[in-house]
Amino acid sequence: MTTAEDILSRHLVWDTHSGMFPAAGADLAGLAAYRRAGVGHVALCVGFDALPWSAAIETLSDYRRALRDDPDIALVSTVAEVEAARAAGRMAVSFDIEGAEALNGDPGMVAVYRALGVNQMLLAYNLNTLAAGGCHDFDDGLTPFGRQVVAEMNRAGMIVDATHMGYRSAAEVLEISASPVIFSHSNPRAVWDHERNIPDDLIRACADQGGVVGINGIGIFLGPNVDDAESFVRHITHVADLVGPDHVALGFDWVPPSRNLPDLSEIVAQRPDFWPRGKGYDAKPIRMVAPSALPQIVGLLIARGWDEPALAALLGGNMMRVARASWGG
């Protein structure tokens, strides 16, 4: 009988987003927890809209220096590099940015970030930006600048991420992007009704466009601040039942332990504009499903009748397909 451990040993696990607070000088030792959990690729955030645009450059410089000589980690920008890292027993790490404020109003910065290993980016983090509307704001849709940014991302080979965006902006991104769009860490709103989660019609549009929805492990987006594998699997199953297992992925949004970064609850309490009160962000602590739950998650899916090809697609195959279409190589 095939076990969860068998499946995990045979297939790439791709986590579409780490929730670690981006900061130059951050303790990155917690990344080893992903590797111990069997993760083969993780996208590490280097900037988001609540920070000055220049902070993303500073964080990128620091993270690249800190990780470049780590024998267990390979910085990657192509599918071939992800495959080479796996063959060498190393964990692939790429970077993402949460929101277009990091561009400082210049679409040319997309190519600059791509050259530095930022392989995916979203256009708004909860609140409106120069590019798009956020999920906790009044969303007027993509701006002309936002449309220009999407075109630049397609040109540069950067994955377009619609997570944290408002409904209209996300729908318009799905309409205009020439490459597959992802919701890297977004859950179905039909399972848990939260503004950060996405409705079924956006999930269908994402699948029709070739993209994937990465299931988020943050407890307030799974249910009433829960951190059990069963809740996580409910969200996976809803997306797979709706659009098929070729359009669902893993986006834990997990915050690895760090010696010098504040707790997640402390971070959100400091910025009620980005994390509005009354929406669960004041939970202490905010619970999370960690990548270490992967054997439980896979075991529950096996019990529900998932076969190995479907599990392989969920774990990493779907994101490899999207990356191949966007990054190349």
CATH architecture: Alpha-Beta Barrel
> Superfamily at the CATH H level?
Metal-dependent hydrolases
> Which class in CATH terms?
Alpha Beta
User: Whole-number radius of gyration?
Assistant: 18 Å
Shape: globular
Number of helices: 13
Secondary-structure blueprint:
Blueprint: H1 4-10, E1 14-18, H2 32-36, E2 41-48, H3 53-67, E3 73-75, H4 79-87, E4 91-98, H5 109-115, E5 118-122, H6 144-156, E6 159-161, H7 167-176, E7 181-183, H8 200-208, E8 212-215, H9 219-222, H10 229-243, E9 248-250, H11 264-269, H12 294-303, H13 308-326
Parallel strand pairs: 1-2, 2-4, 3-4, 4-5, 5-6, 6-7, 7-8, 8-9
Helix pairs in contact: 1-12, 10-12
Describe the 3D structure:
The protein has 329 residues and is α/β, with parallel strands linked by helices. It has a single domain, classed as Metal-dependent hydrolases (TIM Barrel), CATH 3.20.20.140. 39% of the residues lie in helices and 13% in strands. It is built from 13 helices and 9 strands. It has helices spanning 4-10, 32-36, 53-67, 79-87, 109-115, 144-156, 167-176, 200-208, 219-222, 229-243, 264-269, 294-303, 308-326, and strands spanning 14-18, 41-48, 73-75, 91-98, 118-122, 159-161, 181-183, 212-215, 248-250. Strands 1, 2, 3, 4, 5, 6, 7, 8 and 9 form a 9-stranded parallel β-sheet that branches. α1 (4-10) crosses α12 (294-303).
